[in-house]
Write a structure and sequence with these properties.
Number of helices: 4
Radius of gyration: 18 Å
Order of helices and strands: EHHHHE
Number of strands: 2
Largest sheet: 2 strands, antiparallel
Strand order of the largest sheet: 1-2
Structural class: mainly alpha
Helix content: 55-70%
């Protein structure tokens, strides 16, 4: 049985949110376009996913790890598209989303962030830094995992 290291997960997600928002605002200001913020959020997400792939607990080779990061990038694109409709339609219906640059930048960051959360959560389940093995399963050592995780 695997157990989540909740403190590490919450710390990583909080760090992602802080680095993403602060860096995203700076990137948008530097580029003068809201896409700078979303690009920064995706870059940081891929960095975290890459780190999770580098510390995987499945014993994968380098090719599978690279493919995992690329598939996470694709999954994020699909989830962000779904988040555009899930967030955008209600906000537009309530009149809270206007075609103003500040609103559009905030909306782009929100749907990019919403699409990244499930990807990050899934990637963290693959990393030995965010999951630990229970004492009863330490002797089994399935899937190439270390017994002391």
């Amino acid at each position: 049985m695997k157990h989540v290291r909740a403190g590490r997960v919450l710390g990583c997600l909080t760090g992602y949110a802080l680095v993403g928002v602060v860096g995203g605002r700076a990137a948008a200001a530097a580029t003068g376009h809201p896409s700078g913020a979303t690009g920064w959020l995706v870059l940081v997400m891929l960095g975290v996913v890459g780190f999770c792939a580098a510390t995987d607990r499945m014993g994968w080779g380098a090719g599978r790890r690279v493919a995992f990061v690329l598939l996470c990038w694709l999954a994020h694109a699909l989830l962000s598209l779904a988040a555009v409709f899930a967030l955008g339609l209600p906000l537009k219906a309530l009149g809270l989303l206007r075609n103003v640059p500040e609103h559009m930048q905030l909306f782009e960051m929100a749907h990019t962030f919403a699409g990244a959360l499930p990807v990050l959560a899934f990637a963290m389940t693959r990393s030995r830094l965010f999951m630990r093995q229970s004492a009863g399963d330490a002797s089994s050592g399935t899937h190439g995992e270390a017994a002391d995780c």
